[in-house]
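Dear Dr. V.,

Thank you for agreeing to look over these. As mentioned in my earlier message, I'm a first-year student in the group and I'm still getting used to reading structure tokens, so any feedback on how I've presented them would be very welcome. I ran two proteins. I've put each sequence directly above its structure. The first is here:
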Amino acid sequence: MDTPSFTARPTRQAATDTAVRHLATAVLQLRAAGADLESLDLDAASSAVVLGLLEQGNRAIAYRQLQTVFVADANQIHRLDPQTATDIDALAADPQSLADGTARVPVERMCSGMSPHRNTASWMQGHLHISATEARRRLNGSRLLVAPAPTPTQVLAADTGTDTDTPDPMAPLFPVLAKAAADGTADVGTLASLAGGLEAMGPRLADRPDASKLSAVIEEDLAHEAQTREPKDSRKALTDWGTFLAENGAPLTDEQIIAKRGMFFRGHRDGFDEYLMRCDPIDSETLQAFGEAWTNPRSTKLPPTSASTTSSKSNSNGNGTTCEAGQAGDAGGSFVGAPAPAWAVAPGTDPADVPRSEWVGGVPATTVNGATTNHAGATATWSDTRDPRTSPQLLLDGVIAAVSGTLNGTGVPESGGMRVRIGVLIGYQALLGQCEDAGITDHGLPISAANIRRLACTGDLLPVVLGGAGEILDLGREARSFSSAQRKAIAIRDRGCVVPGCRRPASTNEAHHVKPWLEGGLTSVNNGSSCCAHHHAMVHAGLITLKMINGIPFVIGQAGQPRGEPERNLHWHPELRTSGYTPPLFTD
């Protein structure tokens, strides 16, 4: 298979121009064919043919993408001069001039200083407008299905014990899967995923005497499944081989286990944030012991209720304020019969005289004709007088309670202006209960006014008055340098890095002088902005230009993009998008 290497580049520009012209013509022809199909009344057979052809075209394009991504990464495409990259974007968007030969591939010009992009993935995100996940998928696929294997080894023939021919040094790491991707007999994305799973099995295979042969057998089986079955079947085959190697392969070393451990954020779905946790057996034992302490049905020790397991109906204390259920006895003291917490009992009090909670499910119980009833008026049952939370909910509340103990610490650096805490932004009227407008968390997610008022019962409040456009009107004090209060004000106003698309929260960022200090810029909130370290460096390198407009930092220029209207980072200000704000499109 003719696979490009790190040094494989076109020797003649004319050959490159010809190949690009053919590709541009193919793109135009594909668009024309698509327009023709829209006007046709296809029958079942014609639809099947079109679907098959489109799938083959998609697979051919997907594999060539991997090949080109490999070459582009080797050639450090992210260091392209911004103007050159802009010209290329225009040619790709309208390939007619390339197809008819009136335009050619621009001459390569690379940045001599700092480049606008960190790496190839960042370049693809910015110029191809694909997600970070898709960019990583293509890069990883090119490494597994295109790049030459890093250290070619001789394959032992299991039946004779002799060495066979040395593999082609230009062959990719998984040549069988790569061939299936190149000839279009299977979905390229599925093959890349299988290659990643097979690579992860490497440590299990390493110490087996038949490692090379078994690896080849597994690869052939996975390729066959991908070529003849649905993706779920090939994934099942991968799982089956993984199970086999877990029992018959080399055990993972401590170093390999440590490398895989961690807690990973999987996304926000259906109102919940999902995390994946991987831990070694010792950590798992700690978690299980911790969970047993909270979830033992015979234990009277209960974790405090968290916002996610407390009904909003149970949070009114009758005085116009909102607090968590059982606040007076929050160590599980929100249900009938739970004793008052130790701190609320005078020293030396007889245990028989310790007050017991009269709350049922978070609200005071009532007695009618000697029967205890719950907040719905029904007679209280055993489940009413016991904690209604499930074992998973008890475990989660226990973990949240344990973690919350560190959120009030003062030893955490304040480089971004905010120590580790739960931060929300809300209007004062909603905080006082005069309206129910939702607030925004530090990480850009909406949170109800009721939940914010619940947090405010025990949380620290930083009083900051905001104007209608979100500008800071009054901080309460002034300082000549970026003080802690100023950094907090900047963090509250900007919420995160001000560069559009950046997801770094203010707690990890740096305060930047929009008008440089050496040019007479003041060290004030009205001249400060929140920038992550990377974009802060880009600003100082002249690749990003900021400007304060009515007390708000805007991005007014970025290298490689035509100057357009001033922009704000809508990731941290979703209310601008949802209230009718339209992100400006760069125009010539």
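The second protein is here, in the same arrangement:
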Amino acid sequence: MKSYFLRRSFRLLASVPAYVTLPALPCLLLASTSPLATAATPVASPQSADTSHIAAGHKRVGATPRRKNTAPRQGGSEEVEVTQSHTHRYLSEPTTVNVISGQELRSLHLENPKDIASFTPGVTATNAVSGSAPIFSIRGVGLDDYVGTNMGGIGIYLDGVFAPFPVFYTGQMLDVESVATEKGPQGFDMGRSTTGGSINIQSVKPSDKFGGYAEWGYSSYNTNRGRFAINTPITSKISNRLAFNYVKGDGWQKDVTTGARYGSQDLLAIRNLTKFTVDDTSSFLLNIHYTRDKGTSTSPQDLDTVANGGAGTNPNPHAVNVGNTPPQRNENGGGVSLNFTKIFDFGTFSSTTGVDFYRRNDLDNYDGLGTVAGGVRSDGTTVAGGVGTKYADYRWDDTAIAQSHDMHLRMNLAKILHLTVGVYESYDKIDGNYTSYRMDDPGSMVNLTNHFSQQNLSTGVYVNTVTNVTKKLDFIASGRFSYDERGFNGGSMYSAIGAGSPRLAAPYNATLDGPINHLNERHDYERFTGRVGLRYQIVPGTYAYGTISNGYKAGSYFAAPVLAPAALDYVRPENLIAYEVGIKSSLLHNKLILEGSLFDYEYHNRQTLFFGTFHPYANSNITSNSLTLGTIPRARTRGGEISSTLHNVIPNLDLHGSFAYLDAQIKSPVDSLPGLTLDPKIAHNSQLPFAPRFSWSAVARYNINFNRYRTTLQASYTWKDNMWAALGDSNAKTSKISSLGLRMEFGPKTGKWTAAVYVDNLQDNHGSTYSFTGSDGNRAQYIQTPRWVGCDLHYNF
């Protein structure tokens, strides 16, 4: 199947005109400009910015801005030099862009990509399982699949390389320059087509100056963290940057029966970047990276009694009941990428190629191993004197590999037309064995395994134009042709059957190690998408824009082990039409930065997770639960966002705040799915999953100067409304989540070193971040991390 995919891909690329296949620097490298990034953080190395697509009359296309080294300037790490290209890049983008700088990531203790959702308006992210399967959503657009084999409606890019599976972006973010979130359909100037947007994580690049930093921290639950980065010029044309991060700590969860700890950390990440300068206009950047995680997974709380294997009906926030099968995590992965950049008088060409792999072997435990002496089945029959074991565990055993190549050329034509042409290609594959150990009825244990291989091929050709109609008015027109193939070979089968009633031991008359369901098929899809819009400069530093765009996401498969045959099926591609108007303003020499937008999304065939019931046994009233992926024919999301930054308007005080409102509703009710009964049915105007109606965040930072030293006081607060994790599941509604953080930092004004103490989740809130109905029919929930107190020492050299 792989060879067939590649042949189709090569035939498609061969039909593209030669000029289209010229590569260019990934748009990810452009994402280092945000309100806070430009106003309150050190400027990163020159290699990270590509300004070749900015409008004429502001800066010559292809020119590389000269910026200072990443080391802090005299006066402290909060002082920066803001360049014209930085400010114009952020203001001129005709979409909402939220960026968190590397300095902010450190001060707010945002350790992995999902953490950024707390301080990015309209973004949600949560771990759906104990291991690696974070679910991202932007403005309610995403994929609610906890299994981890599917790409959501969000494109995640790590140093310009697309990460198709969640496992690729669960590792630590180390030595990061910025994280930029671009809202709305993307794929018109880089990468893969997405419906919801993209999140671009950019590392600090090598420079020709020797330097770096070392950091050590100690925090709650005996957690030690060590990290460093060292920049080394090797020759006049070769420079290298090595970054390292290690975390080791005890768990914050405690087993109610054994006293064992869970949720411990044992993480290692390392990355080496080498820049080869060919001449003044061209260079290569080699990225080699590795990460591994051998911590102990957290376990969700099963709200059943302790005697029946749960944590209790009103458990302590730290309490779990894991019993004799403790959760575990054993993950590792890495990869290599190569970026080539060439600057011409008329534009910039770049090519980025990457290959990544990831290996995962995790065990989730959803409740303890309780002993049940007898019981009553769902059909009313009694198991007298039988002793059974209650299971609700999952093993995730998979290997993923992904290859991608993006290349594009950005150029000016006749000084009024700014053109980007590019091509994208990726191939990814995941092979896995997902096993569910479950006990549906006393004395009848069912172990299910889905053994599968999934392959995805994506190719695309894109064009993006910006035409200067007048000195202040620009017309934007973009187009993309995408071709996707999805192949799946696998299905669920029994791996073991416990003692019990023969009538209950073989649903659908399946045999031991025999298939319950199986698919071996391939689907392909072609789609044209586009964007048109206007951008108007009201006054210098203030822009208004309006766009109409559409995006699509390829079809998916549900790879979880399931009893219901219909739960394993192909899910059709989804489509989104987006209308957005907004305004961006930078005033008082970038001391006041404001961004606001209103949007209206029309969703067709929204891929989502459904919870239904079915009858697995012939001639029986016994019902069983099953999750599956399906589509909502029509949905609509309307809302607005606003974010602002005040930098030093009041001397020594920085303020940043954001607010988002979402009204995400289902417009086509869903009464049933093939083979599953929805009870209750999904009604008209029901709320879409992962779409909190309100969310907001705020950060205040104040500097106190005395003699040669500086003390920085920081307070941060984030709040998100409750939301649904799956449709049709009454237990799948999360809590309202809030967290207050405080930090005090002390050090010389030169920024040579800093010492800090901090506390996160000061109120020690214990909201439910993800919840669902387990196989035993009880509510299972993950709880937000408790109050966390720590200190750290940071030294620049």
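From my reading of the second output: The helical segments are 2-14, 35-40, 84-92, 102-108. The chain has one domain: 2-796. Does that match how you would interpret it?

Kind regards,
E.
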